[in-house]
Specification:
- The chain has nine helices and 14 strands.
- By secondary structure, it is α+β, with helices and mostly antiparallel strands.
- The chain has two domains: 8-190, Four Helix Bundle (Hemerythrin (Met), subunit A) (Up-down Bundle); 215-444, Alpha-Beta Complex (paralog of FGE (formylglycine-generating enzyme)).
- Helix 2 runs parallel beside helix 4.
Length: 445
Amino acid sequence: MPLHRRAIEGTVCGVVAADGRESRTERHGGPEDSSETIAEGLDRLRQAYGDVRAFTEHLAEPLSAEDQTVQSMPDVSPTKWHRGHTSWFFETFLLAPELAGYEPFHPAFGYLFNSYYEAVGARYPRPDRGLLSRPGIEEVAAYRRHVDRGMESLLEHPGTPETAALVELGVHHEQQHQELLLMDIKHVLSRNPLWPAYAPSHQQPAAREPQKTGWIEHPGGVAEIGHAGGSFAFDNESPRHRVQLVPFAVADRLVTCGEWQEFVDDGGYARPELWLSEGWATVQAQRWEAPLYWDLEEARIFTLTGEHAIDPAEPVVHVSYFEADAFARWAGARLPTEAEWEIVAARSGEPADAGTHALHPPGAGGSQLHGAVWQWTASSYSPFPGFRPAAGAVGEYNGKFMVNQQVLRGSACVTPPSHRRTTYRNFFPAAARWAFSGLRLARDL
């Protein structure tokens, strides 16, 4: 994550309110904006912090203590761990070093809730987080209140630009964990044969006619990608740089469930010629026959709002890079590179923060570049030319993972709207499919 060194006057965070709408998304630039006083900037920072912390608790509210403790696989973290870890971030990087007289809530929580910051100290093994019956959810709630009181004291005074930058960073970090919380609890609940809903809904989504595929053509040439500065971005989105593109076309919509069903019916999961070698080995080892959460026999799908019939017009979701690549080959196409995706998205005119926070991808309609599903690209996750991680422990956030991962672009229905920007680089291993991941096709011209 980047360590932005700008005055507190220019710090405005996009946050998601408890009703799922984005609040305070406007930005006032950097220190050159004299229209906002230090006091106003501080008020905005307090509001952003308070809104994000409240929304995390709002997301956890429907879940029982048992729900919040389960870890269904090593990549999933229990809900209460997400609540504790996001508090640990503020305690470790802000309160302990910067608030005079601050006393940590519990001497062992630094060990329990550290994720992967090796420079900070030892950490509890990730695959074993579900074994922690204690602290319970009430003690985690008390921990969050303790940290919030400390942050209130810290934010009573203007502080330094570095402090403001770390608070902003912590807010965006917690928003990332809000998305992870929903991804993870969906997997947890899916392992229960009762398929309990996170937020029950008795309304079957309205079926729509599948949209015919069109193609957005690009002549190629030299183009620029990456974040240009002037607002918050994570460090892996920069620096902005030039790329050389050959003529290409990108589909104007996402691949749908109906198209994926055709792939399944045509033996897509049983045809080794469609798959990368490691992908084919994974299909055989995991016995994949369809996307995660599909019940082929009943033609139903599990969602956070309950199970419903598979809608052929909905964008397919919860597929791995291996599956996306195999489908593209079956369809006589390929996946776009992240540069191709970004250039097309930047020219689309579609607002990056379009749509509202939702628990399931919306049905057919429009290009859905943002707010439906994360879209796999053909690009491996590697640094942009000139990339340098931030100094210190915070610099461990992105750079250390730039190997054996694929880039996804766009955003999903569960992504906070303030993170739905054209330059955002998400990344997962090629076999991962519990994320809200789908695809759109590309081809050479």
